[in-house]
Design goal:
The protein is an alpha+beta fold and 130 residues long. It has a single domain, classed as 2-Layer Sandwich (Alpha-Beta Plaits), CATH 3.30.70.1090. It has five helices and four strands, in the order βααββαααβ. It has a four-stranded antiparallel sheet. The longest helix has 12 residues.
Amino acid sequence: MNDNINNGYKTKEYKVPTKRYCQTMDLRNDPQMIEEYVRRHKNGIIWKEVPEGIKSVGILEMEIYIYETKLFMIVETAMDFDWDSAMEKLSTLPRQQEWEDYITLLQTGTTGAKATEKWKRMERIFHLYE
């Protein structure tokens, strides 16, 4: 099956129980800036240190979805993952803040803001499984 908007997206299975965090953020309402944001993420033009850093703090998977100017991020981690300490460590790793400053130009955030200051965690209000 090809992963796409009409057929759905395959998820990875892990050998350990996982949990997920869901976050949202808005992009600037400018078609060129949105196109650049998508290009940077969809075509793998993210600096190699960024995904390396994300993985090094214990994030198993990170997905970003877009609808118009709205971004939605899903982060999957092991059950013992501590969000606050991982994000603090991530912000000190090579090129992480540089990437945040660069990509903030396309987002509604403020230059110099950490990812945790821009992305807003969402509350789950429904789930189908027990």
